[in-house]
Amino acid sequence: MAAAEEGVSLNHISRESTDIKRLADFYQQIFGFEEVESPKFGEFKVVWLRLPTSSLYLHLIERNPSNNLPEGPWSAASPVKDPSHLPRGHHLCFSVPNFQSFLQTLKDKGIETFEKSLPNGKVKQVFFFDPDGNGLEVASKEDSS
Asked: Which end of the chain, N or C, is less surrounded by CB atoms within 10 Å?
C-alpha cells in the first residue's frame, strides 16, 4: 500500500443547489443528517450536514446563478427523472439497518422509487432522487446467513 493511501477516508460530498435549505431539509428528514457549524464564505451560502452515525459530511453549496448547466443530473443513462435508470447512473448509496421501515418512509412522503435486489438476493436496493435530481440509493445491510 502506498503511503498516500494509509488512513484515507471519505470526508464529504458536495451538492450545489438553488435552494440549499430545501435540500438540507430533505437530507435531514430522510437520512437523519444533522446541521453543523459551517464557515461564512461571503459571496455564497452553504449548509454543512453530518451523518451522526459516521464521519460523513454533506456540504450543500448555493448554486452560482450564472451557471447554465441543468440543476440535477437525473442519471447517466436517462435525461428524464426515472429512478429505474439509476442502478447504472450516477448516485450516492447509503445503507440502513431497517430497509422496510426506510422504504415505508419514502412511500409515506410520496417519493417515486425503483426497487431491486442484488443477484444473490441478499441485499435489497431502492433508488430515488433528492429534490434537485441527484440520484440516491439505499441498500439493506447484507444478510450474513
From this structure: C
Residues 87 and 36 in one domain: no
Tell me the C-alpha distance between 95 and 137, whole Å.
Answer: 8
The answer as to whether 8 is a domain residue is: yes
- What confidence tens digit (pLDDT) does each residue in 51-67 have? 998 888 999 988 877 76
| 49 vs 63: which has the higher pLDDT | 49
Across-strand partners of 115?
Answer: 126
Task: Quote the domain boundaries for residue 111.
Answer: 83-140
How does the average pLDDT of the chain come out, rounded?
A: 83
- Identify the CATH number of the domain in which residue 92 sits: 3.10.180.10
Cα gap 143→121, rounded to integer Å: 9
Chain centroid to CA 95: 11
Residues 78-103 have pLDDT tens digits of 666 778 877 766 788 998 889 999 99
- In this predicted structure, the answer to whether residue 1 has a pLDDT above a threshold of 50 is no
Q: For residue 96, count CB atoms less than 10 angstroms from its CB and return exposed for 0-12, middle for 13-18, buried for 19 or more.
A: middle
Q: How far apart are CA 26 and CA 28, in angstroms?
A: 5
